Structure formats: structure tokens, C-alpha cells
Amino acid sequence: MSRRTADPSYPAVSVRLTAVLLTLLGVISACREHSRPAPPSQLPSPTNANECGEASNPGRADGGVVGGIEWPGGTRPLASPAVVYACFSPFGHAIVSITQTGSAASIVPGSAPIHPGSGVLAVRITVTAPGRTRLWLEISDATTGKARLIRRGPDIVAADSGWSFERPKR
């Protein structure tokens, strides 16, 4: 009968192998964490244009009308909505619209009458497919339909991994 003896290098190999595996798991975990998109942020709900920050006064008033679009940061999954705010100096008898050029995004509501004194329209935007589109803010006279303000808003950039708003390049 032969006697088995333990390999003296066995504990050292086991310890080294465990250390290598733990290191690999740490690297994979760090890479995975680094590749995650920034979580979507929420905007506080403004009640008037003065609470919209930079969007309500981008420094380029058109004929006395001031307006812009305030949008949240971060990346959200496709089909996950975001709320943006059309912010404008209040004036009566006008229609505010958010329109787009490029890939389709759902914009609800696309337009609404401006009620005297409000200055803010909350709009829900949903993107369901990869692509790129540009948002525009338009304020028109409700009687004549003549545009009183047309201002470029953010771009929407969408990929299979999610979508986000991008500041317009000036």
C-alpha cells in the first residue's frame, strides 16, 4: 500500500490563485462601474420663468421676448420619459410650442396657449429609438400665427444604451 503525501506547494498555489481571482473580480467590477451612464437627474418644477435659471434668460432676447428650454441631465433608458420646461417671459394671446428636427421623439404637449402670468410649460419627452434630434422653442401670436420667438434648444442624442440631452453648440 502506497502512502499519499501532501504536495508542500499546494497551499501556496491555492493562495496565489485566490489572489489572482479576487484581483480579476475587482478589475471587472471597477470597469463595469466606470462604464455605467450617469443617472438621470430631476429638475425642480418651476412655477414661473424666473425659477428656470439660464433657460429663461439666455442673453438673446428677440423683440423683447425672452425664452428658452430647461432640461435635466444624465442618461436614461430608451422609452423612459424626461420632463423639460419651456420658459418664457409671460405675455398674452400667444402659443408656445416645442418642435423637433431629426429623429422622432414624442413631445407631449407639443404646443399650448400661454396663459397670462404663467411663463412655464412642462413638456414630457420620450425617445424610443437611437438617433439624434434638435429641439426648438417657438412662441407665436395666437391671432396671426406669426412667430414672435424661435430659439434653439438642446439636442437629444439616443443610442441603444440610452438617451440624453446635449447642450447646443454655439
Question: How would you explain this protein's 3D organization?
Answer:
- This protein starts with 9 loop residues before the first helix and ends with a strand.
- It is an alpha+beta fold and 170 residues long.
- The longest helix is centred in the N-terminal third of the chain and has 26 residues, at 10-35.
- It is built from one helix and nine strands; from the N terminus they run αβββββββββ.
- The model is unreliable at 17-38 and 58-63 (pLDDT under 50).
- Strands 5-3-7-8-9 form a five-stranded antiparallel sheet, with no helix packed on it. The protein has a four-stranded antiparallel sheet with strand order 1-2-6-4, with no helix packed on it.
- The chain has one helix spanning 10-35; strands at 67-70, 82-88, 94-102, 106-108, 111-113, 120-126, 131-141, 147-159, 162-166.
- The radius of gyration is 27 Å and the shape is globular.
What is the number of strand segments? 9
Largest sheet: 5 strands, antiparallel
Helical fraction equals 10-25%
Low-confidence stretches: 17-38, 58-63
Please give the order of strands in the largest beta sheet: 5-3-7-8-9
Order of helices and strands: HEEEEEEEEE
Summed over residues and divided by their number, the pLDDT gives a mean of: 75
Assign the structural class, choosing from mainly alpha, mainly beta, alpha/beta, alpha+beta, or little secondary structure.
Answer: alpha+beta
The Rg value, from CA coordinates, equals: 27 Å
The helix tally amounts to 1
Proportion of beta-strand residues? 35-45%
Quote the distance from N terminus to C terminus: 87 Å
Shape: globular
